[in-house]
From TrEMBL:
Keywords: Hydrolase
Native organism: Devosia geojensis
Pfam family for this entry, one: Lactamase_B_3
Protein name: UPF0173 metal-dependent hydrolase VE25_15845
Residues annotated as domain Metallo-beta-lactamase: 7-197
UniProt-listed SUPFAM superfamilies: Metallo-hydrolase/oxidoreductase (SSF56281)
Length: 231
């Protein structure tokens, strides 16, 4: 399995039988420097944790160009079905797990909000924000989405045992470095931790070094935007 950080909370996961994009905010993302058309080519699934524009990003364009399947909340899927004919969506909600060919996806809580601002100024309710766990090649990747710490993270660990954590550390809109490190140390047994949702905008934490110094469990891979690691 390969995991590529595309900046902010966007990730590309390449595994047997699937090419998955999490929260594909690419165009307009100051940290994204790849070739957009080349990067999205071959995408099979888009996993969207919530509707905020810095996560929704290029979702509709990617679905249209690749034929990928969107997996997200019922509200987001319904909105896309009603406004973009012919795109493939699959709605899920808290506690659900479903297999899609060579991958499986589980939905867990996130403590945040969810809405989408359209180009004409509408604010669209995006349902409940979620964390998404991708299982492929016998491995599990937990994208926390945007979230604060919450004690039921202990249940996420007990039920799903995720090995790789994609953890927001940017503060202001999500956990900051200290609280994110507490979440990792107290609730999880991650083998690999990849921090995200930082350094994109001035309001956010600009470095992962503080987070990295506080994590006591697992290996922190503070990779650069566009960098790929093999898991």
């Amino acid at each position: 399995m390969q995991i590529q950080w595309l900046g902010h909370s966007a990730f590309k996961v390449t595994a047997t039988g699937a090419q998955v994009l999490f929260d594909p905010f690419l165009n307009g993302n100051p940290s994204f420097s790849g070739n957009y058309e080349e990067l999205i080519a071959g995408t099979t699934h888009v996993l969207l944790t919530h509707a905020h524009n810095d996560h929704w990003g290029d979702t509709v364009d990617i679905l249209r160009k690749t034929g990928a399947l969107l997996i997200s909340s019922p509200e987001i899927c319904d909105y896309i079905e009603m406004n973009h004919e012919g795109l493939r969506v699959h709605a899920m909600n808290m506690g659900g797990t479903r297999r899609f060919g060579d991958i499986a996806v589980s939905v867990v809580r996130a403590v945040h909000s969810s809405s989408y601002n359209t180009a004409d100024g509408q604010i669209i309710y995006g349902g409940t924000p979620m964390g998404l766990i991708l299982k492929a090649e016998g491995k599990s990747v937990y994208h926390m989405g945007d979230t604060d710490i919450f004690s039921d993270m202990a249940l996420v660990e007990e039920l799903h045992h995720p090995e790789i954590g994609l953890v927001p550390i940017g503060d202001n809109f999500t956990m900051g470095p200290q609280i994110a490190a507490l979440a990792v140390n107290r609730y999880f047994d991650f083998r690999t931790v990849i921090p995200c949702h930082y350094a994109t905008f001035p309001l956010l934490e600009q470095s992962a070094e503080g987070f990295k110094s506080l994590v006591q469990k697992g290996r922190v891979e503070a990779i650069a935007p566009m960098e790929t690691i093999e898991i």
